[in-house]
Amino acid sequence: MLLKDKVAIVTGAASGIGKAIAEKYATEGAKVVIADLDLKDAELTAKSMRNNGHDALAVAMDVTNEDQVIKGVEKVISTYDTVDVLVSNAGIQVISPIESLPLAKWKQMLAIHLDGAFLTTRECLKYMYKSGKGGSIIYMGSVHSKEASVLKAPYVTAKHGLIGLCKVVAKEGIKHNVRANVICPSFVRTPLVDKQIPEQAKDLGISEDDVVKKVMLKDTIDGEFTTTEDVADIALLFASFDSNALTGQSILVSHGWFMQ
Ligand code: NAD
């Protein structure tokens, strides 16, 4: 049990990658906080984990809402007394060429990915510093933290920004034994990706099959999707690696798409 009795908050954990990470952490003994927009969705995930004998708490948290983030983290502390791991994972995607992208969509993307990462980090750091035990902060980046694609200006901007935030958190956090790292997956079949296949097909004027083969997987070296399990394994590595040797880093889990 690599995370026995550790308390881990995972944002956006009612679906996709976040859910897989929460499940992985729970099987490794963590007390897992399922933080998501809708309490009912979060509770469904938490309940199924409790039914499997794990310790899980659902928290309603829009990561762009300062008050909800503060209250959500306070609820975690009042329930479990501490927080050891934050996975800032909540995210959405917007597909649009820049010339027709509404400012509101741009701001929404930056708010969810960057304000959300900042607010959850700030609130967790307060307790991680106070406890004297340190902790691990993990950001869900993307290959788009390193590389650009058409139609994804705010996403690429936000995902690049997470690398900068991570490096600052690593530098500020080190004296408190707080580590920060970024996971950079390629495409993973989750609701976020399933939604953009028809959208990209329309915008690019190609078939949905071609979106998968000629856009999403074209730069991988084996034409394969990354899986939620692959990403959860890296999230487990970052959460359980108990040394300050591994901080301020980003790892690509991308079937060879973008090598550095
Ligand atoms: P998903 O749509 O399956 O899950 C996203 C979750 O985030 C949902 O449960 C949603 O309710 C939640 N969420 C959205 N806005 C929120 C907010 N304001 N506050 C709290 N929760 C919110 O998507 P996913 O594919 O699992 O994506 C998770 C993360 O992984 C995102 O940051 C995404 O950018 C990143 N990512 C995904 C892929 C991929 O191919 N799926 C690749 C690289 C990175």
Describe what is shown at a glance.
This protein is an alpha/beta fold and 260 residues long. The protein is built from 8 helices and 7 strands, in the order βαβαβαβαβαβαααβ. Bound molecules: nicotinamide-adenine-dinucleotide.
Set down the secondary structure blueprint:
Elements: E1 7-11, H1 16-27, E2 31-36, H2 39-51, E3 55-60, H3 66-80, E4 85-88, H4 103-131, E5 135-140, H5 153-173, E6 178-185, H6 191-204, H7 208-216, H8 228-240, E7 249-253
Parallel strand pairs: 1-2, 1-4, 2-3, 4-5, 5-6, 6-7
Helix pairs in contact: 1-8, 3-4, 4-5, 6-7
The protein binds nicotinamide-adenine-dinucleotide (NAD).
Residues 11-12, 14-18, 36-37, 61-64, 89-92, 112, 140, 142, 185, 187-188, 190-193 line the site of nicotinamide-adenine-dinucleotide.
Q: Any overview of this molecule?
A:
The chain is an alpha/beta fold. It has one domain: 3-Layer(aba) Sandwich (Rossmann fold), CATH 3.40.50. Helix content is 48%, strand content 15%. The protein has helices at 16-27, 39-51, 66-80, 103-131, 153-173, 191-204, 208-216, 228-240; strands at 7-11, 31-36, 55-60, 85-88, 135-140, 178-185, 249-253. Strands 3-2-1-4-5-6-7 form a 7-stranded parallel beta sheet, sandwiched between helices. α2 (39-51) links the parallel β2 (31-36) and β3. The longest helix is centred in the middle third of the chain and has 29 residues, at 103-131. The two termini are 32 Å apart. The protein binds nicotinamide-adenine-dinucleotide.
